[in-house]
Amino acid sequence: MEEGATENAAVCKHLLSDLIERGLTSEEGILVVIDGSKALGKAVKDTFGSSTPIQRCQIHKIRNVKEHLPESEQQRISRKIKKAYLEPDYDKAHKALNNIVKELEITYPGAASSLKEGLEETLTVHKLRVPGLLRVTLSTTNPIESANSIARSTSYRVKRWQNGEQALRWIATGMMAAEEKFRKIKGYKQIPVLMAALNQACRGESNTNISHIA
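RESULT FIELD:
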């Protein structure tokens, strides 16, 4: 945990450095799944290297696009984007998303720009050829969002926050409560495929021949 503004790169970098001091290693490759925070993205690159694979949350991306659309178009465009992300092949998913961008550019340019921004990073798990259920799991920040929700519900009755130390204690308490509900992530049996891809990415090699690994 780190106390500070969420859009502060220095705070995010200090948090990541603390994780490394606690034993986190990226020697065999690491995949970082984040929301659209530019500060966090910068901190990840500064800490682990500019070639670190970052997966931007697809759900956050869809929400951002919807904010630029009238209510009458939100569900239709959301369904099209979700369908594109469900395509397992990177080239096909990328083409489908670009077609949506072209569709939006004339009538809703704000939505088109929102979809284009960081689009490549929303397809990182596709480029790594992460299979099936594990790809779906790691394409969003949902696994950690549930823990955040439990942490919030643990501290929601606190009405008088005295200082940052008290806030950190309550967050820690909430996360410990969330930990009791942790389960294996969906698609965990496919993690060796992901590790092989990250290993090759870490060495700067092509992952063309990874797909046969079971």
